[in-house]
Design a protein that fits this description.
With 155 residues, the protein is α+β, with helices and mostly antiparallel strands. 41% of the residues lie in helices and 16% in strands. The longest helix has 15 residues.
């Protein structure tokens, strides 16, 4: 579920910039707002990280990381490719409002051309990890490879 949510955030970010999110949610401090609301339990804190755009022939790659409350579950969040644009936007809004913390990073075409798509994805994943204000117990990273810039617990 956490990886699907990360992918959902990443897919939607290709149309919504992080600055636009900050403007839309000016008082959004997820790490404070939702910890009590959803019975936050640090011993089970998981962060899902995924990308969107890596398979495209051109354009940026967008990476997102999301930490959700342990008690959060939504059956509708599975594969964003199978959802309508309207439903993806609804779920995106739900995810950012429920999340304990999240981050979204875009890696531009110039960077991808300079260091390649795989290294660009690793760069974005590490930037997402560094932007999180809440440190989870484990990061679930979609894919079979990952290069971490710092010592973290990930699968």
């Amino acid at each position: 579920v956490h990886i699907c949510l990360g992918r959902e955030l990443a897919r939607l970010e290709t149309k919504v910039t992080l600055n636009a999110l900050k403007k839309r949610f000016p008082n959004f401090y997820p790490h404070q707002k939702n910890m009590d609301k959803f019975n936050y339990n640090k011993k089970k804190l998981i962060c899902g990280i995924d990308e969107a755009g890596r398979g495209a022939l051109a354009g940026p790659v967008t990476i997102s990381a999301v930490i959700l409350p342990v008690s959060y579950h939504n059956e509708k969040i599975k594969d964003s490719k199978r959802l309508s644009k309207k439903k993806r936007l609804e779920l995106f809004n739900e995810i950012v409002n429920v999340a304990i913390d999240f981050s979204i990073v875009n890696i531009d075409v110039q960077t991808i051309d300079e260091i390649n798509i795989l290294e660009s994805t690793f760069l974005g994943m590490n930037q997402c990890i560094n932007e999180l204000k809440v440190i989870p117990d484990i990061y679930l990273i979609d894919g079979n490879k990952f290069k971490s810039e710092k010592k973290i617990n990930y699968k």
